Structure formats: C-alpha cells, structure tokens
Amino acid sequence: MIRKVMAEIDVKLGIRQTLQKIEETYKKTSLLSNAPKPLLVAVSKTKPIELILDAYSVGQRDFGENYVQELVEKANDDRILEHCQDIRWHFIGHLQSNKINKVLNLPNLHMIQTVHSIKLAEGLNKAWEKLKTENAEKQQKLNVLVQINTSGEDEKNGVQPEDAVGLFRYVLDKCPHLNCEGVMTIGRFGHDYTAGPNPDFGTLMKCHQDICSTFERDPAELQVSMGMSDDFVQAIEAGSTIVRVGSSIFGARAKKPTDA
C-alpha cells in the first residue's frame, strides 16, 4: 500500500511548486515589507520515511510533525540519521507536559512551535536546562513560538490573543533557556477568501504588532507561523514568515487518532 501511495505522489515536484509559489508571493509582498522570505516547513505527519527522503533530496530541510510518537520514530530512524544529517524537526502539535522529555531528547530538534501556556513554557525551560547540563549538543537555547488561539475554538490550543504579550513576557523573563522566536496559530479551517481576508491571520498579526511594540522588537526579526496547504499564499500576503505545508507536497493524509 505504501509503495502504491508513493508511486502516485511526486514529492519533489510538490516541493518545487510550493517553493515557486512562496517565491512569487514573497516578491510581491517584499515591496511593502522588509520581512524575510518565508520558511517552508514540510508537514510529514502520517507519511512514510521514503517521502521525507525524497523531499530532503531536493534541498528541503525543515519538517513538521504533530504527533510525539511519530516524531520519535522518524527522528531516530536509521535512514533519516544516515541520509538526512541536516534535517530540522519542528514540533507543531499539542505537547503534553509528560511528553516533553521524549521530544527534547530527539536528534535534530529545531523548534517547538506550540508553546500555549506558562506551564508548558516552564516545563520546557527546566527540561532543556537539564539537557544542557548533560548533553554537549544541547548548548544553544531551545527555539520556541508562542501559540495563539486566534479562532476562539475550544478544540484549538493556544493562549487567548489578549494574553499573548503576557506569555511572551513570561518566556523572556522567566525562561532563560528558551529562545522565543515569534508567534504561531492554526486558525479556523476553510475560510472563504471571497468574503475577505482571513480574520485569524489579522488577529495573529495584531498580536505580533503588540509584542513588537511592547518589547521594542524589529517586526522583521519576529517570526509569524501561519498558513497551510490551502491558504499559505494568503498567509504570506498577510505577513507570515513560516508556512506549514503538508498535503500539497505529500498528498492527502489518512486520519490518525490523537497521540495518547
């Protein structure tokens, strides 16, 4: 079954087409902003190692995973360790406190994009401090993003928009082992762009603006992670600097139960 799926999916073409759209959109928006060119995070959740190897072979280095156990298996896979030594893993799912050590101990972990609470920030900071003491490879700060629930949906994780500055402040002041690079949202699925811009994107950009103003940060230096396969072009137009694209590259995903 896996071979049949792989035969139907041209991951290399998907990467090239996605990067081309990012480039074209960025050229238009860069005339109005000095933000960096958006980073493509290829979301490989539920997809086999072979497709990750395909994407890596054409230069893709940043990959996103939603499920702890799946990320653990992929990051430690012998083929990944041998052939993808420069891979950068982004965890983009809900991280429970009791799973922190599983994720932070992984090789080539680059970023936790979903810091949604003070409790999680505290847990990550303490765990990373311990790892830095024990592991010479973990001497840099852990890159994180503050996750904001811009849609107000109960099933979505993230701090409320009005609390975004407070959580960012907590990470800056109380979590010396974390490097808070910016903000992230998932947002409501299926926005109708014929009705106007995505309000979730607007809300995240307002949080981004508030944080930059409060802490006197250059907006171009604070990352914004929003936009997926169906709306990453619109997300870049709205100000996104990190897009998380899965099905446009790897094909549609089979549903998977929530990580236990």
UniProtKB/TrEMBL annotation:
UniProt-listed CDD domains: PLPDE_III_YBL036c_euk
PROSITE patterns xref list: UPF0001
Alanine racemase N-terminal domain span: 19-253
Keywords: Pyridoxal phosphate
Lineage top rank: taxon: Eukaryota
InterPro entries cross-referenced by the UniProt entry: Ala_racemase_N, PLP-binding_barrel, PyrdxlP_homeostasis
Nucleotide-binding in keyword set: no
Residue positions, PTM N6-(pyridoxal phosphate)lysine: K45
Cofactors: pyridoxal 5'-phosphate
Listed GO MF terms: pyridoxal phosphate binding
Record Gene3D superfamilies: Alanine racemase
Pfam families membership: Ala_racemase_N (PF01168)
Family: Belongs to the pyridoxal phosphate-binding protein YggS/PROSC family.
Function, in words: Pyridoxal 5'-phosphate (PLP)-binding protein, which may be involved in intracellular homeostatic regulation of pyridoxal 5'-phosphate (PLP), the active form of vitamin B6.
Protein name: Pyridoxal phosphate homeostasis protein
Naturally occurring in which organism (per UniProt): Anopheles maculatus
Lineage: Eukaryota, Metazoa, Ecdysozoa, Arthropoda, Hexapoda
